[in-house]
Amino acid sequence: MYLSVLDSRQSLFCSSVSFEQIGILHKRFKQLSHNEDTLRRDDLNTIPDLSCNPIRTQIIEAFFDKRNFHQNGEGTVQEISFEEFLVVMSHFRPPALDMTEEQREIIRREKLRFLFNMHDTDNDGTITLEEYRHVVEELLSRSGALGKETAKGIADAAMLEVASISMGHMEPDEFYEGITFEHFLKILKDIEIETRMNIRFLNMDTTNLCK
């Protein structure tokens, strides 16, 4: 019954997960929600494995972003059901070994869309300099080795490099509005995101969901 709410695109993510694995996920969901039928942000904020993650806020928000579990969804919700939790978790699962190249490419694109959504916080279809800077600053400043201004300078330089990859030559007076999803695909074209994107909490590792 858990898969009944998924559209065909999302079902591709979850189709190779066994009922036993879904049962494990459901048990974890109940642990996190304190045996309630829905999960809230506060429930995820208490996870020790996420507490030291530099993009903890983005990961948690991803679970409540309608774009990640409803086709053409917009905005966020205050709580999610197990079915919605299952769809979001499926983005962290590596592709099954018996998938076709076409299926792997679909999953790759969906994983990258999920990552893009995490950083496109205002849902305007573009990761702006400000959004990108926020992520880079958070990643760098958490280490304690760099001050905020240094982190800001690195973020700005990184964004200019991204602009050169995405747009090629830019005129001095040309303004770079930000990274579109197509630019995002181009930037990460050589990164094997399918197997590297995973999450761990409550002693559950999503890399095991295809075994």
From TrEMBL:
Family statement: Belongs to the calcineurin regulatory subunit family. CHP subfamily.
Protein's GO biological process: cell differentiation
Keywords carried by this UniProt record: Calcium, Cell membrane, Cell projection, Cytoplasm, Differentiation, Lipoprotein, Membrane, Metal-binding, Myristate, Nucleus, Protein kinase inhibitor
Record's protein name: Calcineurin B homologous protein 3
Subcellular location(s) per record: Cell projection, Lamellipodium; Cell projection, Ruffle membrane; Cytoplasm; Membrane
InterPro entries for this protein: CHP3 (IPR052490), EF-hand-dom_pair (IPR011992), EF_Hand_1_Ca_BS (IPR018247), EF_hand_dom (IPR002048)
Record carries keyword Chaperone: no
